[in-house]
Amino acid sequence: xxxxxxxxxxxxxxxxxxxxxxxxxxxxxxxxxxxxxxxxxxxxxxxxxxxxxxxxxxxxxxxxxxxxxxxxxxxxxxxxxxxxxxxxxxxxxxxxxxxxxxxxxxxxxxxxxxxxxxxxxxxxxxxx
Length: 128
Known about the structure:
The chain is mainly α. Helix content is 52%, strand content 0%. It has helices at residues 18-30, 44-56, 62-71, 74-78, 86-93, 98-114.
């Protein structure tokens, strides 16, 4: 017949790709003011990304995450070069106000919402 049959794959939504969302989160973390002085051995966004990685990987405790830190692919997936130990993470992130995290969370949430990835999760009066 002269027609070629081809399978058309759906285009990936690049703004919803994990690396794009993680980059958006890191950018939001970079805008959070920190209370530490100038003499620091780890960047604040890196410490925040480490905490995010710990929760997204569902580590049951900081010590379990510490093991993942030694064995895992945190630099590849999360762009984290240095991960603080549990004591250092507590010291860095303890003073962080949850209000300071809201803008970064909101930007990631809006991107996911705009990409319609949350539509299957709507349950009552448009709430997720």
